[in-house]
Predict the 3D structure of the following.
Amino acid sequence: MSSSTEVNTNLYDDELTIGKWFKNIWTAIRSVTKGLGITFKYVYGVKPVTIEYPEVREELPANSRSRLFNDAENCISCYQCATACPVDCIYITAVRRDKEAPALKTKGGTPIKLDLLQYTIDTALCCYCGLCTTVCPTECLTHTTDYEFAQYTVDEMKYDYLADDVRAWRDRIVK
Amino acid sequence: MENSNNVEKLHTDLMTVNMGPQHPATHGVLRVEIKTDSEIVAEATPYLGYLHRCMEKHCEHLDYRGIIPFVDRMDYLASMNMEMGYSLAVEKMLGTEVPERAEYIRVLVSELQRVASHLMFFGTYAIDLGAFTPFLYAFQDREEILRLFEELSGARLLYNYIWIGGVWNDINDEQLRRIAKFCDKMEESLKKYHDLVGMNAIFIDRTKNVGVISEEMAYQYGATGPVLRGSGIDWDLRKKMPYGIYDKFDFDTVVGKGEMGTVGDCWDRYQVRVLEIFESLKIIRQVLDGIEEGPIIGKVPKIIKVPEGEIYVRTECPRGELGYHLTSDGGKNPYRLKVKSSCFTHTSMLGELGKGQMIADFVATIGSIDIVLGEVDR
């Protein structure tokens, strides 16, 4: 050993007597049997705690914050979600609605005064904090309990909520 | 010393080895540059910054509500405690009154989080020292807490649950009953786990007299939390400077006594954490007795504008003391949010602790100070 380091060698300082030798063996046996005793209690009569995933799918609690869904028909384009978003991943474009066009209302009865042209959420950026859903006045933007939405490319994580295929989720979302 | 075959005269160099950033024993992305002399650590230098996410700078451009998801991500194993400290800081500046029920729920969730975090320590520390089973036991119990948090807040790890002025969702009676049941079960099984790991002869041999942090060293480095208490110093912010409604509860501070070896060794720090779970369960039981119906969020303006000034708030987190220094210029965003993290302080001790240890003991030392790199780098 070089002189640059000092090692704590007090572990080996004690002289090993025969008494200590037997005491060590006794300690080891007692300790091991105690530990294994606890382990053997788990051999029988214990329910499995894990879920075999692809066969058994877990249902998440009702207010789980998973994939976002915007019911575009009830959206009044108030931009509150985009303002509340801490990572700025909600992109909204809306124009003023023609006065001659037939008046539209949301489910709750709020008149829609803006035409929604784009409502996109970049889910790859989303941090699932839930702040956007709490500010939504018409409660059209919600977190669903759908958690299986892996994609092959990052671009596919950009959800355009006006597109037909994304609108079709409406039938299978829970909340 | 003269030696006949001149082995002593052979020139031996110190070898530099990188431990981490991807190393199972460093609990995240910590890189420790170790100069080794055969099996012995001659010099250890921790390098940080692999998980730096500019969190403090980001906060300067976010509104006060939007910061909460960010502070969650600092110590991802104790998000509730992170939120609690931040909310307290903003509430003190705003002068908001938090309803009684919300205060109770806050204490409840942060103590549950402390239990979950210490269980995580218990499991990973056993893995560091070569025992795999305790990890599974610990995770089984931790899972129940996470499931409850998921029902409460909607997320398993990054909750965004404690809001400025109160909490997000209310807790119902069924959940309270479940927590009571969990407390009984946890107490019973934790005694079993402590027998399995803490009293095991191999575990004791691996941890006693290893990585000793003396009282003086703990003071000098500014250690907090279980590391400080493990060195035999009776200091708990919940007791000494109560925040929230912690002054209402009756619990003990656990300090290391050096039962197996020296005061302040790895075993003492392990024991402090395990016994702290019992204390947390004590607090949770008192919360369950004292909680009453009422509102869960106080009056907070829709757009939060904190008056000009600054504040420093510190809270007791599972890993030590967490301080928020919030400076405001009266606008919608904070002027500066400086976070004082306990893990950072503890990481700085590694250099001195590691000197002269065996490499395997060094692994035990890193595990025993229980750092989360998310909080170190922020």
Chain B touches chain A through 41 residues (CB under 8 Å). Chain B is about 45% helix and 10% strand.
